[in-house]
# Entry
Amino acid sequence: MIKQIIGGVTKKTVYAEMSAGDLTAVQALMEGKLEIYDKKFEGGTASVMPAQMNSIRCSCGKKISKGVYQTASFSVPHITQGKSFADAKALIIGAFDAGYDIDTKCDYSNLIGSKSEVA
# Structure
């Protein structure tokens, strides 16, 4: 696995199965600081699947000027039962980066979609 860091920000993490020679050749093509990790194993500790899935998709960002927003969206496949978008929003605003500039924090978050199997 190759983690590519440009300007102090992780731009991309690439997983590729290749020989050591191929890995060396690819490194010469990539810009920025590279961190190389060996694949030790796949998967993790098996855990019980939740009886009910509780996923959210939201956007977050920062208003730059009148009518101009810096925004991104992301999905969380399953949040803890009993938690809601309001809980996520409280964690996002003021903490998440609004873009590649780590000093610009989100000042809003909107729910795009919610797929909760909880009745």
Observations:
- The chain has two domains: 2-36, 54-116.
- The two ends are 41 Å apart (CA to CA).
